[in-house]
Every structure is written in C-alpha cells, then in structure tokens.
Amino acid sequence: MSRSEMVIGTRGSTLALWQTRRMQRRLQRHGHESTLQRISTRGDRIQDVPISEIGDESVFTKELDRALLDGRIDCAVHSLKDLPSRLPEGIVLAAVGRRASPFDAFVGHPDTTEGLHDLPKGATVATASLRRRAQLLAWRDDLNIVSVRGNVDSRLETLAESDWHGMVLAVAGLKRLDREDVIRTVIPPEVMVPAVGQGALAITCRTEDSALRTLLRGAVHHLDTDAAITAERGFMKRIEGGCQVPTGAWARLNSEGTLVIDGCVAALDGSASFRAQKTASVEQAAMAGAELAEELLDAGGAEVLARIRNAASA
After folding, report:
1. What's the CA gap between 69 and 73, in Å, rounded?
2. Where in the sequence is the domain holding 136, given as residue range(s)?
C-alpha cells in the first residue's frame, strides 16, 4: 500500500467525522495523505435499545475491525471509550491523540436555568450510560434517571422537546461540535468518575502492519495520554467490561510526573459505591489500573457487578 493512498475507517456520525478529520489533518501535516471511508456499526443502527442491553462490548467497533482485517481500510479512528477491553486478534491500538476533557457535563433543559447542584428533589435526568446512572444515584438517590439514545444533536433536540430537567453528555463531544454553550455544569470527579478513555481518540491498525503503526505513532501519538489510558484500560480489563457495567476510571500525570488513577464501581440504584485512588510510575500504568480494580472488587464491587451481570443474563 502506498501511504499516499491510506484509507481511514470511521463511523458516520457528525462527531465521529469531526474526530477522524482531526486525525486526518494531523497526518497531512506530517506529509501523509488519506481518504475516509464511512462504516455503519451496530451501535449506530440500533437506536431504540440502551447500549448496555445490546450485550456486545464492541458494538461501535466490530464492523470497523472487520473492514481492517478484510483489508478494505488501513486504519480506523475511534473514540477511545468505545474500544473493548480486549481488541480482536490481528488488530492493535497503534496510537492515541492528545486527550481533551475527560469529564461529563450536565446539560439543562433550555427553558430552565438550573445547574446540576440546583436540581429540585425528584428531578429527571437523562442518560443511557450505566456508569452515569449509578454515580448520579449514589450522589443523589432522589433523582429520576431516564434513558436516551442518539447522536449529540438528536439528544439535545429530544431534551428540548421533553419535560426533563436535563441530561448528561461528554464535555469533549460538546466542545468538538461547538455546543459548549449548552453546558451548565462540568461534573466534578468527586461526583462522577469519567469513563475509561473518555475524551481521547484512538487509531487502530492491523498488527502485521508495523510500518503503518510506526507512521501513526510518529504523527499523532501523545505519550502522556497513552500513559493515562494504559492505566484506565488496565482497570477495565480487570473489571471485565466497558459500557456494560457501571464503572469509571480516570488517570492523569501530576506535576511531579507521577501517574494518579481514580476508580469507581457503583450499584445501578446508587445503593453502594466503591471508590479508591492509586499512584504509580508511568512504567507501571497497566499494573496500577489492574491493582486499583482489584482493590475495588475486594471492597464489595465484585458482589455489585455479579448482581448486575446475573440480572442481565436472567
């Protein structure tokens, strides 16, 4: 393959295209031309069922993986939080871009003025995320949490037409789509630990294509982000689940260059919530994430997750 003919696979949503074109521009600045190929995923096609109920950790990536392995595309750009804990054989995480905000945002109904901390008793908040649901209810058990699916624009339209008080969306996605204006509250990690990889972009390629992997790492890879997501994905692998279970992990480097990672496991109804923090060297990132997960599982998280998985399979 000539690198001037690189084909990049992407989902077709407005946000996915924005993210992929950002990576495409980075590659172009390094002299690498490319074309985009839009690929519809199961998660894009099924809009009336919560992601957690589809029962597939690779709901937003499987079709892109297949296109990679079939040779129809050379690499694929993903929201890193969509990547399953274990990639298919023959596919490697080649590079990660500099992370934007990892945090979640409370978006209020356009006819109201409340931020997250001003919500009245029994307020209705929309989210399709088990992680967000569980942590919101652990913070305030009086909230009424309802499910919502769709891309960012359609969710905002649904909110405007509803009687909900607000919804939760990722800060990074809103900023990338120039919708920062709708953010009422950036939710602090003390209330809501972010999703693994949230705010970061990933490029995957075939394991055998070492030359392309080297090219991608040289053009778009960000080392500090890589250290953080390595710890978070170490956490997710030990937990054994992504969006299918209500867990969160957020890693970052402090001013001394030490890796700090926070983790959370919570019951869906908010009745139990387990949190912990761990520090480690960058070289121990994956191990630190796994050890933090083990600590939370031992503290009671294992029983919480077992009940959730048993209920889902019943």
Report:
1. 8
2. 104-186
